[in-house]
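Following up on my earlier thread - several people asked me to post the actual chain instead of describing it. Fair enough. Here it is, all 221 residues.
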Amino acid sequence: MLEKLNNLNDVKIHSVFSEEFKTFGRVIEDTDFSPLCEYMKAHTFVPEKNNIYVASEKGMEALAVCGEIQNKLYGEMPIQIGYCNGRNTTYNGFEYHKGSEINVAVTPFCLVLGHTWQIKDNKFYVGDETVFFVPEGTAIELYQTTLHLSPCTVSDDGFKAVVILPLGTNTPLENAEKSDKGESALLLQKNKWIIAHPERKPLIDQGAFAGLIGENKEIKY
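Reply from S.P.:
Thanks for posting it. Predicted structure:
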């Protein structure tokens, strides 16, 4: 599939098993995430249009593997386990968190990634990104300096991804005072700093900062 994707797209697509991924994250190979994948296959759906994101799915958090992930991979810090399912194919923007995010590919998908140090004056320029293919069943940790957003589907069936984050991430703000300057201009939700493409109306309507400059590129499959 990776060869096919590279033949169809004008941006190089790398494997998460490649050297290029090492500054963005790592592949997790010492933890069995299959109970989460089985739950996702049995209890979640891919919407007909767009994406659906659930920050905390109680059914998955009740599984025994949740405790193992929290203790071993987050050093006993409280976590939430949710998911993102959908049919997205475009960049749309980038977000980052203070703390690692773990994604598990219930289906294969692509991720468009960048580094926080590539943001200049709250802007990120298309062309500075790196695109990665994540095979089905692969679990990856994205470091807190890694810019990311929704996966991009590589199939007409859409994608399913487990999303594990520090507890409270991507939930409504309570006390933050937003500013139009500096990093605080990018804060949209708890532990969620984001820049959006100006054409990505759903994000702009939520108050996301329009800082992704260039074409809102599409990953073809």
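The domain at 2-117+125-172 is CATH 2.60.120.10 (Jelly Rolls). That should answer part of your original question.
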